[in-house]
Write a structure and sequence with these properties.
eleven-stranded antiparallel β-sheet
């Protein structure tokens, strides 16, 4: 699968994330209650993230929008797109290393991205497409800068569990060398993905300029 098609699927996930958040804004989701200013957070668009493996439906949802690479900073690419007339910006990277326990278990590629959606007043939302179906009800962690952040899981997607900590997590990511994400698959396989954070700060600074609120 091409990187362009994966990126288009990611744009679609942002679109569905925004649409779902409007429907769920009044729901009892703990994350929605904690993070009203970030309506996309409770949406947890696992079904939108999954089409990365089958991007055709995602392309349709995205209205044919394709992301544009506006800069490559270390391991992080900075992208913009305008699905349905609403600008979306995100920084994207693949893991520098991945391990499974038991070893060598098959999985799809993992991706981490930090997205901004001005129309929804969402800034620097961290999410991960882990590349496999996560164990229902399980929690993953993102370790960075000596701190460990609990991640909410649904489908093959991860988001920070406590939205109030997201800004602190992003700041730690800007300053640290790498981030480690740990998860457990539906079949019980433990995974550890290490993402280099080289260039992330520069990518986010560029997106802040190109995706003004």
């Amino acid at each position: 699968m091409s990187v362009r098609r994966i990126l288009t699927a990611m744009v679609a996930s942002c679109v569905v994330c925004g649409a779902a958040s409007l429907a769920q804004a009044q729901s009892a989701s703990p994350k929605a209650a904690k993070d009203a200013p970030k309506p996309a957070a409770p949406a947890k668009p696992a079904t939108a993230a999954k089409p990365a493996a089958k991007p055709e439906p995602a392309t349709a949802v995205a209205g044919g929008a394709e992301p544009t690479l506006i800069g490559q900073y270390g391991t992080w690419g900075a992208y913009t797109a305008t699905p349905n007339g609403k600008k979306v910006c995100f920084a994207l990277a693949k893991p520098s290393s991945s391990k499974t326990n038991p070893p060598n278990r098959p999985r799809d590629p993992a991706y981490a991205f930090v997205s901004t959606r001005p129309a929804e007043k969402v800034t620097n939302e961290v999410s991960v497409m882990i590349g496999y179906a996560l164990k229902p009800g399980s929690e993953s962690t993102l370790e960075v800068g000596g701190a460990s952040f609990a991640m909410y899981t649904q489908g093959d997607g991860l988001w920070i569990k406590n939205a109030a900590e997201e800004e602190r997590m992003v700041e730690a990511m800007r300053k640290s060398a790498d981030a480690v994400i740990k998860g457990v698959s539906a079949k019980g396989t433990e995974t550890t993905d290490t993402f280099s954070l080289k260039g992330l700060a520069q990518a986010l600074d560029r997106l802040a300029q190109d995706c003004r609120r």
